[in-house]
Amino acid sequence: MPEAILKMEHITKEFPGVKALADVTIEAYKGEILSIVGENGAGKSTLMKILSGSYPHDTYEGRILTGGKEVRFLSTGQSEEAGIAMIYQELNMHLDLNVAENLFLGRWKQFGKMIDWKQLYQKAEEYLKMVDLKVDPREILRNLNTSRQQLISIARALSHRPKILVLDEPTASLTLAESEKLFAIMHQLKEQGYTCILISHKLDEVFEYSDRIIVMRDGMVINSHEKAQFDQSVIIAEMVGRKMGNLYPKETVPIGETVLRVEGFSVPHPQNAKKRIVEDISFEVHQGEILGIGGLVGAGRSELVDAVFGKTAKQSGRLYMNNREIRINTPADAIANGIALVTEDRKADGFVGGMSIQNNITLASLKEIGRYGMINASLEEKAARKYFEELKVKANHLNVRVNTLSGGNQQKVVLSKWLMRHPKVLILDEPTRGIDVGTKYEIYKIMVGLAKQGIGIVMISSELPELISMSDRIIVLANGRLTGELNGRNATQEKIMELATVGTVI
Ligand SMILES: Nc1ncnc2c1ncn2[C@@H]1O[C@H](COP(=O)(O)OP(=O)(O)OP(=O)(O)O)[C@@H](O)[C@H]1O
Ligand SMILES: [Mg+2]
């Protein structure tokens, strides 16, 4: 056995009404890539926040040892000093600062009393090289896409020269090529004796790159598996607590009339008025159909659906609902015409975190639950409860605040909100990002149920197995253009990737 560089022993952590961790003991070894897998709410992030000092020493039970010695972190700074670096699930970057400022946030001192900017930018370049990212360190973060921001947060973590690097869902918003780059970096670090702890719902990458997998469920460690004995179905069964024969519950649903037709949509580029991020795209979705939209991150898929929904302005394009032209300039217009959009970033515009499940579900349907301009509390509860139960939101009651729910359950609340509006077309942008296998299955079930009711579903997905297994038809975008259409039945990962990379250099 190699030496344990880290031990977390008998860790128990409670939040009001929730035991997030119950007597968890884990070890990590020098030079390994250790993955921790488990359903949403299993306690993975909580365990890592204890390690990072986000939850200080006196807020949990149990102890942490690094290199055999007990450590008691009272702040994230202390954990960083001890050689532990975190890349968080939610990006915590300052969007209005530039790249270099983000990299060295809180560590200005090393550049002198009067900050030596030249040196700062030079150092920044050095760290950007470590993640193989070619951006100007003077660029404001907001102007970069999410995947670049993510790579910068990784560079920032590396700049602390950590012994242990913790990555909580680092690839959620990365393209395949970027993820591979990240894993190549992790592999190099491992060779140099660093330890990487990875948390990911993308089981493919977990199985491919880990040396060991720890499975957690309901705040407990269920098992630890060495690479030689990885068995996907055993590990999934341990995660969800039951055997899962099929991960994709797709059913054949009769496909009806065209419900929404999008014609000639073009969208201006947000940063460059001369360019277009979506170029003359047309497609249609039928009743009962699940239309998949494939493509690389940055291909213009979200920009297309955001413009259809009236969230952003289009340059040109027409929309037809049941063959009648409709005009959409704002999301309110889209909603009034029976279109719902579950965005990729549910935290930013899917729900109001500080509000209860009930208030969130009814947020877009206040008219239905009101009388004479006043909200009728019992009508509201009844309406919200219907979806809460149908979609099996995991929470003790309807008054739980949404920001304390796990990602999968937050997504169910967002879905409930839109279902309450009885949409004709439901657009889902990366609906299962960051969501565990068991809950993914439930979300797919919900999608199939809606298709059966005749709703037309449009699903953007970067997870190829999901796209292929759940779609009746797939259109693929590359560089803002439609590059092809595939029938769900004969689509393959290779065919989609081929269409997704038309005219791009990777
Ligand atoms: N700040 C908090 N207040 C109250 N409850 C919390 C808080 N943070 C987490 N929880 C609860 O603790 C449990 C563990 O959550 P945690 O975020 O650690 O899960 P996770 O395994 O990281 O899930 P995911 O895969 O969705 O990221 C969940 O039941 C969650 O609702
Ligand atoms: Mg988490």
What does this molecule look like?
- With 506 residues, the protein is an alpha/beta fold.
- It folds into 3 domains: 4-240, Rossmann fold; 256-338 and 424-506, Rossmann fold, CATH 3.40.50.300; 350-422, no CATH class.
- Helices cover 32% and strands 26% of the residues.
- It contains 17 helices and 22 strands.
- The strands form 5 sheets. It has a 6-stranded mixed β-sheet with strand order 6-7-8-3-9-10, with helices on both faces. A 6-stranded mixed β-sheet has the order 16-19-20-13-21-22, with helices on both faces.
- Strand 9 (212-217) and strand 10 form a beta hairpin.
- The longest helix is centred in the middle third of the chain and has 16 residues, at 176-191.
- The chain is globular, with a radius of gyration of 24 Å.
- It starts with a strand and ends in a 6-residue tail after the last helix.
- The site of adenosine-5'-triphosphate has 17 residues, from strand 2 and helix 1.
- Magnesium ion binds at residues 44-45, 89, 168.
Write the layout of secondary structure elements.
Blueprint: E1 4-15, E2 18-29, E3 33-37, H1 44-51, E4 61-66, E5 69-71, H2 76-81, E6 84-87, H3 99-103, H4 117-130, H5 146-159, E7 164-168, H6 176-191, E8 195-199, H7 203-209, E9 212-217, E10 220-226, H8 232-240, E11 258-268, E12 276-286, E13 290-295, H9 301-308, E14 316-321, E15 324-326, H10 331-336, E16 339-342, H11 346-349, H12 357-362, E17 370-371, E18 374-375, H13 377-390, H14 407-419, E19 425-429, H15 437-452, E20 456-460, H16 464-470, E21 473-478, E22 481-487, H17 493-500
The structure holds adenosine-5'-triphosphate and magnesium ion.
Adenosine-5'-triphosphate (ATP) is lined by residues 15, 18, 20, 38, 40-46, 89, 404-407, 436.
